[in-house]
Design goal:
By secondary structure, the chain is mainly α. The protein has a domain at about 15-40. About 55% of the residues lie in helices and about 0% in strands. It is built from 1 helix and no strands. The chain has one helix at about 15-35.
C-alpha cells in the first residue's frame, strides 16, 4: 500500500515529521482549550 509522496511547494519530504509534529501539537492544544472551555 505505497502512496506517491505528497509534493507541497516549499516543503521537502524531510520536513514532514516536523510538520506532522506541529499539526499534532496544534490539535492537542485545541483539544485542551475545548476541554477547559467546558469546565464551569
Amino acid at each position: 500500500m505505497s502512496q506517491a509522496p505528497l509534493r507541497i511547494p516549499g516543503f521537502e519530504p524531510e520536513d514532514l515529521p516536523t510538520l506532522n509534529l506541529a499539526l499534532e501539537e496544534l490539535a492537542n492544544h485545541k483539544l485542551q482549550v475545548r476541554y477547559f472551555d467546558t469546565i464551569p
